Amino acid sequence: MYVLHRLSLKPAHGYELLREIEAKTKGDWRPGPGALYPLLKKMIAAGYIEPIQVKGEVDQKVYSITPKGISLLESSKMKIYASGQRMESLRRIVLEMMGAEQALDFLVRTTKGHFEMIRAAYFMRSGRKPNKEILYLMREYCLVLDRETHWAKQETEALESSE
């Protein structure tokens, strides 16, 4: 889905996609050519993308999303959103299964990632939502942060005083 998303923004060649995935995952994941190029071939065969031959110093194959690919991408976005909501409803079960110490460590690390995602989403808005809606969401976000910061400070002070 990321490949379709990326190609919906601008056509790209395979190597460029590999580099971008590696950069966006901060090096944690870099699919190899043996994974990406067969995927691109399957996506061409399915009609989701199309190759465009680009003339230059070296002829390169650049990939572009098709209307069928855009349709799949849009329906997938809705599925991803729905699965995120389902995961949210299962959070207590997941945390209980992890255990207290692992869960706390996991949540602190993933919270940092959530903050990065929120900032990225804010800067990606690029006029898609009216400023009034963005302002409302940002105010709501500030309230959530204030409540959580207040709670975290109280608990930290309680832990410090018990030592």
Structural features, described:
The chain is mostly helical. It has 2 domains: about 1-70, Arc Repressor Mutant, subunit A; about 90-160. Helices cover about 75% and strands about 10% of the residues. It is built from 7 helices and 3 strands, in the order αβααββαααα. The protein has a 3-stranded antiparallel β-sheet. A hairpin with a 5-residue loop joins strand 2 (about 50-55) and strand 3. The termini are far apart. The model has no long low-confidence stretch (mean pLDDT about 85).
In short:
The chain has 7 helices and 3 strands. With 163 residues, the protein is mostly helical.
Shape: elongated
What's the total count of β strands?
3
Q: Tally the structural domains.
A: 2
- List the total number of helices: 7
What's the story with the biggest beta sheet?
Answer: 3 strands, antiparallel
Order of helices and strands: HEHHEEHHHH
Q: What separation lies between the terminal Cα atoms?
A: 49 Å
- Low-confidence blocks of residues: none
Strand-pairing-aware structural class: mainly alpha
Placed side by side, the strands forming the largest sheet appear as 1-3-2
Give the percentage of residues in beta strands: 5-15%
What helical percentage do the residues reach?
over 70%
Round the Cα radius of gyration to an integer and report it: 21 Å
* Mean pLDDT over the residues: 86
